[in-house]
Amino acid sequence: MTQTAARKQGYTATVVAGCFAVLLAQVAYSLPGALNGTFQREFQTTGAELTWITAAFAIPMVVFELTTGVIGDLFGRKRLLQVGALLTVAGSLVSYVAESVQILWVGQIVAGLGAAILYPISLAMLAAVSPSQEARSKAIAVWAGFLSIGAAISPLMGGWLAADGDWRTSYLVVVAAAVISIGITQVATDSSAPQGRRLDVPGQVTLALGLIAILFAATQGSEAGFARPEIIGAFVAGLVLLGAFVVIELRTDVPLLRLNIFANRSYSVVAIATVVGMFAFLATCYSMSIWLGAIQHQSALKIGVLFLFIQGPAFVLVPLVSHLIRNFSPRWVLTVGFALIAVSGIWCSTFDVHDVSWTRFIGPMLVLGVGFALTVGSVTAVAINTVPMRLAGMASATTNLLRDFGFALGPVLIAAFAVSRANSDLSTGVGGAIGESGLTPPYTEIAGGIAHGGGAMAINSMPVVPGAGPDLPPVPMPESLHVLAFESLGNAYSLAFLVAGLCAAAAAALTLFGLFGSKRADVEEPLTDEELVAAG
User: In Å, how far are 86, 118, 403 from 476, measured between CA atoms?
Assistant: First the structure.
């Protein structure tokens, strides 16, 4: 067998392994999308507790992506990819047996660590084994297609199994997929790139702790109150830690994140638009899931079907998006994409929560999916074309981090806004609703305690007011309280859709005006001495 033939064989096996790995990661990440309502009823969660189910996966995925990439470069990617699949197995098994929302968080955290490996390492393996630039482009396109497939089938699978009362089985499916991924990876070609690479432990620690502190404060503040000392302290600690991260990255020889690239105006515009636009995209997805599942208590299968309309265009339109990027200014592709995401959010904000027709979401979710297809396939291309070619790989990796950071912010910040607004409206009207309910003591105090402690989400989901012993059995939750909580949540998430839409509109305006006159950077610009050391 010739060397060329062997390389082609390794290329095919590695592409298969990488694509299946990213499919696995996306299935695990997207699974709660259709199950939020199921989780809320199963575990009787508050709004913040429900948000943490998604955030517990996303936060470790975002904060460790860059570090796992460095580890793969230093010590080899093949075994690390298998470790990522093993972590997905462990996290999914914990979620399968979870009897409380706190245990489910643990499973999500472990699976999120697995995804922090699977996403960057699978892509790096494909790039390393590709025999030509054309082969690399094709492999990355297929990789992106499998990512979209995972995002489409996962909520549908979860919704279908939840409709049969067996949502836990969906996590066993993830386990089976992870085992298959480990086996496929065994025949892939290993690769590494240790030259000029080393772990940036101070940078990783400050970045991780800073992001976790800020996201914790945003999520818990929505229910506990943003004026509480621990919430203010978490915000301050997060800002201090992120400030320390910036100082560390500017001074270290081999930074985790090269901040000097943001001196490029066009790249900075794309970076900001990516975070804001991807926040708007996932905020809209999450709000739809909460609206139908946790508020209206509709079937998880219906939500899963809607996710097909969201993610389907990202796979179907891959050839069209590739053609548009090559033949038109990506500025226009990005602007149109973000504008469509804005249309979707604003459209959904006009819906009445009393209307339980789920099919009305098909139109805006399809628009959202087309907008996502245009943007997610374009941001990396724009980033690469606005910096010197010698920085293209780093620019792409940083853009991926920013995209996933936007994804992580989506559920956390939009839920913090909506839950805080809904609980505020509930607190304003709960006295009058209890007065109209006909409840007598001690049920009035118990209902008031539920409203104060669990918020609108708890009142909306509880069928009864619990009793206080054998002589005080549970009584039905009064309709006045149900209506107040239901309408408070509906009004809050209508505003959440509007906020998401306006954020996407801001991203569209930013790319339209911020990229005006941008050109491809000088690919012949020489390396500096520092960059030669960093690049090896």
Answer: 46, 48, 45
